[in-house]
Write a structure and sequence with these properties.
heterodimer; A: mainly alpha; 2 domains; two-stranded antiparallel sheet; 9 helices; 2 strands; B: alpha/beta; about 20% strand; ECF_CbiQ (chain A)
Chain lengths: ~240, ~280
C-alpha cells in the first residue's frame, strides 16, 4: 500500500471531523490563490504546522511528497525570471517578483492538498462527497475501486517481481514487453475477482446498496470557530498587510 | 433425526460443459463440524456455492430443515441469512474501508437498526478476537487477520450454518490456531460448521463428521474418526490417512497402545494414551 494512504490512516488527526479538515484546507487554498503572495506564505506555514505539529505527519513523507511538484515549479520559475533575447540571457524585468509570487502560491496550494491527502483517507473524502449529495451508485463504485486498487496493485507488484526473477527486466525492450503482459493479465484477474466479490456480497445479503456503519465524528462548534478565526486572521493579513 | 441440510442428486455443469458435480448426495447433521475432503480442483468450492444458492444446480435438490430450497429473491435472502459463506481468499469479500464497517454490512442488509447492528459487529469481532482491529483499514491487515475479519462478517449475520472454503489454507501456525479456537467457540455456541479442506490432519483434529469428495460426488460420509481411518476410502479420494491415526495404528499393532484405545485426535491425546500403556513413560 502507498505510504500516503498509510499516513492518512495512521496520523493523529485521522479521527478529526472531515468537515473541519476540508474547511481548513480548502479555505486556506482559496485564500492563497485570491490574496497577495504574503498571505500565501502564511497559508503554507499554517498548513505545514497543522500537518507536522498537529497531525504529526512524518516530516520525511511531507517533504518527500513535495519534492516532485517543487521540481516542476523550479523549472517554471527559471523561465519566469530569465529572459532570452537577441542580447543573450538576462533577467526578465519584474521577473523576480512574478517568480516569487508563483512560488508562494504554488507551495501554499501544494501544502493544502498534501494536508488533506495525508490526514484524510480517500474513502473518508468519497464518503463525504456522498453525504453532500453525490449519487450513492458513484460513491459505492468509487469506494470499491479504491479497495480494488490495493488488491490489483499487490498483484501487479507480485507479477513484476516474478517477471524480474525470470529476467523479464533484463533489457529495456523486455521490460516494456513485461509491463504489457502485466497490464494484459490484470484485466482478466480483475474480472475474476469482481465475479467472486459479487458472490461474496450476495452471500452477505447484498441488495444493491452498500450500507455500512461508519463511525464519524461530527464537526464541533468550537472546532469550526477556531478554523474560521484562523481563516479570517490570514485573510486580514493578506488584505491589509 | 433429520439432518439440518440434506443435499440429493446435485448435478452441475460449468458453462463449457465440464461436469463439476455429478449426482452428489450429502447430509449435514445439526450442530456438527463437517469436513469436506478432496484433492484440489475436485469441485469442493462449487459445492459450497450451491449450498447457499450462489449457483443453481442443473438437477437435484437441497433441503434446509426439511424444506426444499427455491431460488426466488426472497427465498435466496432467507437462505443466505441462515447459511453463511466465507470464501478462500478473504480479499474477495472484504470491501469496506475499515474492519468494523465491513462487518456491519451483513447486519444492515438484514434490515437491523443501527444499535442492533453495532451490537452484532462488537459480538462478531469479539468472537474472532479482533476487537482491537475494528478501526483498521481492511487493506492494512495481515493474511490471518483478513481471514478472521471475513469470518466475523459472516457470523455477524448469525447463520445457523457457517461454510468455510479452505479455512486454514495459507495460514501460519499461530493464525491457524487462533482460527481453530474461534471456530470451536462458534461450534460450542451451536453453529453448524462445514469446511472444505485437503489437509487430512486438520480435518482429523477438528472435524467430527467427514465427507470424501471425488469426481463431483461424495464417495463416503461418516464420523471423522471412522472415515479417516478407512484407508481404502481415503485412497479412493486420493488422500492419505492422518499422521496421528497412522501412528496410533502402528503402535497398536506393536502392542504399545491398548487395542480398544480411542483414536487420538491431538498430540496430547496420543501422549495420554501412551502414558496409560507405559507407566515408565508417564513417570519420566
Amino acid at each position: 500500500m502507498s505510504p500516503i494512504d498509510r499516513e492518512a490512516h495512521l496520523n493523529r488527526w485521522r479521527r478529526k471531523p472531515l468537515a473541519e479538515k476540508t474547511l481548513l484546507a480548502l479555505g486556506l487554498l482559496v485564500l492563497a490563490l485570491a490574496l497577495k503572495p504574503a498571505a500565501a506564505v502564511l497559508v503554507a506555514s499554517t498548513m505545514s504546522a497543522a500537518a507536522l505539529v498537529g497531525a504529526r505527519v512524518s516530516p520525511r513523507l511531507w517533504f518527500g511528497c513535495m519534492a516532485a511538484p517543487l521540481g516542476f515549479l523550479a523549472v517554471g520559475v527559471v523561465t519566469l525570471a530569465l529572459r532570452v533575447d537577441a542580447h543573450g540571457i538576462g533577467l526578465a524585468p519584474g521577473g523576480f517578483a512574478e517568480a516569487g509570487a508563483l512560488v508562494a502560491r504554488s507551495v501554499a496550494g501544494l501544502t493544502c492538498m498534501l494536508f488533506l491527502a495525508l490526514t484524510t483517507p480517500a474513502s473518508d473524502l468519497v464518503g463525504g462527497l456522498g453525504r453532500l449529495g453525490l449519487p450513492s451508485e458513484i460513491v459505492d463504485l468509487a469506494l470499491l475501486m479504491y479497495r480494488f486498487l490495493f488488491i490489483l496493485g499487490d498483484s501487479a507488484v507480485a507479477m513484476d517481481a516474478a517477471q524480474a526473477a525470470r529476467l523479464g527486466h533484463a533489457t529495456a525492450r523486455r521490460r516494456v514487453m513485461s509491463a504489457g503482459l502485466i497490464a494484459a493479465n490484470l484485466l482478466p484477474r480483475a474480472l475474476d475477482r469482481a465475479r467472486r466479490m459479487e458472490i461474496a456480497l450476495a452471500s452477505r445479503g447484498w441488495r444493491g446498496e452498500m450500507r455500512v456503519l461508519a463511525d464519524r465524528t461530527a464537526a464541533t462548534a468550537s472546532g469550526l470557530a477556531a478554523i474560521s478565526a484562523t481563516l479570517a486572521a490570514i485573510a486580514l493579513v493578506g488584505l491589509f498587510a | 433425526m433429520t439432518p439440518l441440510m440434506d443435499v440429493s442428486g446435485l448435478t452441475y455443469r460449468y458453462p463449457g460443459g465440464v461436469t463439476a458435480l455429478d449426482g452428489l448426495d450429502l447430509r449435514i447433521p445439526r450442530g456438527r463440524k463437517l469436513a469436506i475432503l478432496g484433492p484440489n480442483g475436485a469441485g469442493k468450492t462449487t459445492l459450497l456455492l450451491h449450498l447457499n444458492g450462489s449457483l443453481r444446480p442443473a438437477s437435484g435438490e437441497i433441503r434446509l430443515d426439511g424444506a426444499r430450497m427455491s431460488y426466488g429473491r426472497q427465498a435466496l435472502n432467507d437462505w443466505r441469512r441462515r447459511v453463511g459463506l466465507v470464501l478462500q481468499d478473504a480479499d474477495d469479500q472484504l470491501f469496506a474501508a475499515s474492519v468494523a464497517e465491513d462487518v456491519s454490512f451483513g447486519p444492515l442488509n438484514l434490515g437491523l437498526g443501527e444499535d442492533e447492528a453495532r451490537q452484532r459487529v462488537a459480538e462478531a469481532l469479539a468472537a474472532l478476537n479482533i476487537s482491537h482491529l475494528a478501526d483498521r483499514p481492511t487493506h492494512m491487515l495481515s493474511f490471518g487477520q483478513k481471514k478472521r475479519a471475513a469470518i466475523a462478517g459472516a457470523i455477524a449475520m448469525r447463520p445457523e450454518i457457517l461454510m468455510l472454503d479452505e479455512p486454514t489454507a495459507g495460514l501460519d501456525q499461530q493464525g491457524s490456531a487462533l482460527l481453530t479456537e474461534a471456530l470451536q467457540r462458534l461450534s460450542d455456541a451451536g453453529t453448524t460448521l462445514i469446511f472444505t479442506t485437503h489437509e487430512v490432519d486438520f480435518a482429523w483434529s477438528f472435524a467430527d463428521e467427514a465427507a470424501l469428495f471425488r469426481n463431483g460426488g461424495v464417495i463416503a460420509q461418516g464420523p471423522a474418526t471412522e472415515l479417516l481411518t478407512n484407508e481404502r476410502a481415503l485412497a479412493e479420494a486420493r488422500l492419505a490417512p492422518p499422521l496421528l491415526a497412522r501412528l496410533a495404528g502402528a503402535l497398536k499393532t506393536r502392542g504399545l497402545l491398548a487395542q480398544d484405545a480411542a483414536p487420538p485426535r491431538t498430540v496430547d491425546d496420543m501422549l495420554v494414551l501412551i502414558a496409560e500403556r507405559s507407566p515408565a513413560y508417564a513417570g519420566s
